[in-house]
Amino acid sequence: TCALPIYSEVNAANVFSSGTIQLDDSPGTAAVTLTNMAPGDSVISPLIMTNNGSLPLRYAMTTSTTNVDGKALAGQLELTIRAKTASLCTAEDGAILYGPGNLASGAFGSNAQGAQAGDRTLAAAANETLCFKVELPIATGNAFQGATTTATFTFDAEQTANNP
């Protein structure tokens, strides 16, 4: 009998790694704050959204509010969110993503899986600035004197690759 020679070849170092999405905001707390508001007052503040991940992402935003004093100031405040242009946020010239509308229901996009109307996209390592404006309408009545509300803006992100 004759034995056939056995030959093998090794192809090593095949590496696979998964990508990441990581949505960060700056400042990380208190994006918009104004105390001692009088009817007609408003505040405009930028919020920088950054994708610190390695994959492109899309994101959406929702708002929740609390009125611990029971005066429901959140229902009086008007919110407008714009995409920043080359100008300062105070120019108010960017595309409107939300509003003007009630602070308590402020939202754009959808946290449902897949692309939805209003979702924002960010490439890996990219950022964009959103301009938040909160206004206490001039017609606000005396019942809201000394009122306080807190708003929480929640941003939900998902990968765009293979996720139509």
Q: What do these coordinates show?
A:
It is a single chain. The chain is mainly beta and 164 residues long. A five-stranded antiparallel sheet has the order 1-2-8-4-5, with no helix packed on it. Strands 3, 6, 7 and 9 form a four-stranded antiparallel sheet that branches. The protein has strands at residues 23-26, 42-51, 57-66, 78-83, 96-102, 107-108, 120-122, 127-135, 150-159. The mean pLDDT is 94.
| Strand order within the widest beta sheet | 1-2-8-4-5
Mass-distribution shape: elongated
Q: From N to C, what is the helix and strand string?
A: EEEEEEEEE
Would you count the extended β strands for me? 9
Distance between the termini: 61 Å
Portion of residues in beta strands equals 35-45%
Question: What value does the average pLDDT take?
Answer: 94
Which structural class matches the secondary elements?
mainly beta
> Counting H and I runs of at least 4 residues, what is the number of helices?
0
User: What percentage of residues falls in helices of 4 or more residues?
Assistant: under 10%
Largest sheet: 5 strands, antiparallel
Low-confidence stretches: none
| Rg calc | 24 Å
Keywords:
164 residues; mainly beta; four-stranded antiparallel β-sheet; 0% helix
